[in-house]
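[agent] plan:
  1. take the single chain provided in the ticket
  2. run structure prediction with default settings
  3. attach structure tokens to the ticket
  4. add a short note for the reviewer (M.T.)
[agent] executing step 1
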Amino acid sequence: MVAKIKQYTSDVVKEMKKVSWPSKAQLKESTIVVIATTLVITGFVKVIDIGMELVVNVIF
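[agent] step 2 finished; step 3 output follows
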């Protein structure tokens, strides 16, 4: 069991060395894109929600 855990840990370390990590600038840019996209989609959903609420209020 201990040998399997050591092998697994060794394999994880080897694979993590192969990972291409983003630079600080790339990470910042991606974060801004995700936040902006989230805000736009949230705004869109809110507008649809308000519209549906108005329709339901007119019907009932």
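[agent] step 4 note for reviewer: Residues 24-59 form the longest helix (36 residues).
[agent] ticket updated
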